[in-house]
Task: inverse folding
């Protein structure tokens, strides 16, 4: 899988669950004296990123190219993907030290908000607005997903991972069924597949985070993107928006109808429990991110090539949300430390390299679907061109791209969110109790 995008769980676990360890001592990563620390008079800017065998060579090549014509020199500082300390913890410590990074790998939104509120991250809005070519080189919905309080603080650095409805096309065709286009279609398919002794949807609830795709999409379809935007912004009473309760009620309706079978709470996703059910025809559908396509190609290649199909998440009758909107992981971002000794050089690197033809071509070759405009013809060279083109066009048309809630929200919400939502799925908590629990978090 080294040529494919890493899974959502790799990124989310390293960011929020503390599963990343730095591969070099934190406060001596580059041997510099701080942000933009100097050696022999020349400035060395640290670029912090996750260790990734597919991505790091691409990032290093961009840095090498930039350094040829830049007085200030950039240096990549990768962090290993195993150990007991999280990247987010290292970043928090590093940003408060004399050896803070100059360019910061992040997930946007919740992962970056504390630093923005502390005045540590450079606002890139003026530079983007002044350079239309640079701004328009990125897909708007992805660039906007890096906004905080209406201002741009991050530039996309890799591919996009949307959540889709995956389904077994051979099974559907055999029964004369089509992918669901509305929530009512979902209910009808749930009842039909149950009557055939086939579990309608695979769900790896042991890991809890797979539950999120349902509330994320249902809230979006019912109330529109602004509902979660208000929640993420911390607006008082935002969790009490009627769309949240309606989404939770629909989740419990699906559970009651047997949409996820009877033992979903004991099925995992990370260790291929849900994916295996789906690949073996025990489940007809699976709502999951684009990493599921990669996982199926890797673990169940015959099923992936013969039976795997995909569709957008359905609309909800009477809903305010645009059915073209998507949720998932828009991408990862690079942001600039406001206290870097050479902010201009850091910004110039992002402007010169992050949408350059060489960088984008390398991402595509690595299996990514870059968040860059005008790529239709280039995606024909991707490892999986049909799927890559589908995802690209989906995001290209999306009026909004909502980041996964456990990443978009402040870290204090993550565990209560996942735990409470699990209880909703298990009918151990009512929608009102869920909303009360989330509103109490301050």
Result:
């Amino acid at each position: 899988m080294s040529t494919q995008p890493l899974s959502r769980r790799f990124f989310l676990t390293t960011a929020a669950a503390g599963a990343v360890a730095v591969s070099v001592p934190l406060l001596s990563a580059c041997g510099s004296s701080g942000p933009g620390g100097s050696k022999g008079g020349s400035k060395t800017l640290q670029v912090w990123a996750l260790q990734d065998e597919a991505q790091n060579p691409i990032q290093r090549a961009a840095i090498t190219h930039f350094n040829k014509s830049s007085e200030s020199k950039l240096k990549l500082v990768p962090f290993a993907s195993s150990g007991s300390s999280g990247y987010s913890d290292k970043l928090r410590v590093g940003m408060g030290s004399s050896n803070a990074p100059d360019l910061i790998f992040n997930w946007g939104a919740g992962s970056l908000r504390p630093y923005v509120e502390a005045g540590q991250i450079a606002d890139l809005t003026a530079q983007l607005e002044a350079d239309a070519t640079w701004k328009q080189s990125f897909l708007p919905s992805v660039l906007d997903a890096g906004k905080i309080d209406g201002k741009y603080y991050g530039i996309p650095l890799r591919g996009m991972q949307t959540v889709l409805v995956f389904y077994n096309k051979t099974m559907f065709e055999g029964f004369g069924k089509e992918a669901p286009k509305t929530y009512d279609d979902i209910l009808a398919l749930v009842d039909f597949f149950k009557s055939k002794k086939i579990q309608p949807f695979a769900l790896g609830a042991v890991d809890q985070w797979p539950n999120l795709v349902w509330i994320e999409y249902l809230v979006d379809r019912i109330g529109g993107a602004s509902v979660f935007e208000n929640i993420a912004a911390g607006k008082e009473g935002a969790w009490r928006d009627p769309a949240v309760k309606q989404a939770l009620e629909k989740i419990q309706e699906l559970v009651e109808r047997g949409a996820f079978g009877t033992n979903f709470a004991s099925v995992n996703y990370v260790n291929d429990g849900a994916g295996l059910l789906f690949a073996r025809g025990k489940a007809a559908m699976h709502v999951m991110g684009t990493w599921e396509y990669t996982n199926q190609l890797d673990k169940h290649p015959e099923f992936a090539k013969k039976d795997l199909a995909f569709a957008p998440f359905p609309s909800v009758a009477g809903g305010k949300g645009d059915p073209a909107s998507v949720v998932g992981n828009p991408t990862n971002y690079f942001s600039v430390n406001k206290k870097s000794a050479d902010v201009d050089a850091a910004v110039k690197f992002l402007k010169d390299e992050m949408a350059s033809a060489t960088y984008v071509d390398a991402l595509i070759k690595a299996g990514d679907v870059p968040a860059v405009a005008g790529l239709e013809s280039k995606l024909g060279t991707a490892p999986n061109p049909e799927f890559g083109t589908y995802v690209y066009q989906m995001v290209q048309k999306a009026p909004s791209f909502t980041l996964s809630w456990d990443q978009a929200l402040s870290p204090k919400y993550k565990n209560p969110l996942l735990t409470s939502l699990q209880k909703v799925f298990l009918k151990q908590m009512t929608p009102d109790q869920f909303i009360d629990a989330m509103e109490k978090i301050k």
User: Anything to note?
Assistant: The chain has two domains: 8-159+330-403, 161-327+410-439.
